[in-house]
Amino acid sequence: MKKIILRIIRLFIGYFVCAVGMVMTINANIGVSPWDVFHQGLGNIFNLPIGRASIIAGLIITIIDIFLGQNIGWGTIFNMIVIGIFVDFLMFNKLIPIFNSFFLSLLMMLLGMLVLGYGCYIYIGAGFGAGPRDGLMVALTKKTNKSVRFVKNSVEILATVVGYLLGGSVGIGTAIMSIAGGYFFQFAFKTVNFDVSQVEHRYISDDIRFIKERLISVKEDKA
What we know:
Keywords: Membrane, Transmembrane, Transmembrane helix. By secondary structure, this protein is mainly alpha-helical.
């Protein structure tokens, strides 16, 4: 039980670190990240703040993950909801600064990508299933045998195009993050010797199977 509690704490710490990284890239104000272009596009359609729009995006991507055969964990569900809440909390309370200097904004954006990479390492490593977007990255990495860098860059370029068509804003920072984002993630993972394909997750299907087995065991004992 203690081990599970520590893993849950790690999960939510990872979510918060991811949210900090996301808000750093947003507040850099030189073009939002590829996924946030998509979130902005959805926000324009449904008249929602970017955090809530990311929750809707997470639901859509989770459905795609299931279609690709990616198992869904409780971490996937929490990710879909909690990161968006953390993002709105950080932005509404202005806890991440906004700089007028282009150099400082660029530096914050680059650091934000690195923070986001470490946040993903923290929560994916908890073993409760990858989030919708990272689950898509994991699923495609396994299916294509391509590098994390290649898969992440390809997916985010697609998200940028779709988000732009939906009305999301694109800037020089978006181009930088589309190209360099995968490198930052791969660098973050390498510094902690983290291989996403080697993580053993506990999925919702495992819990359902466990409960069924326990119920069958109880019925047999009573018989």
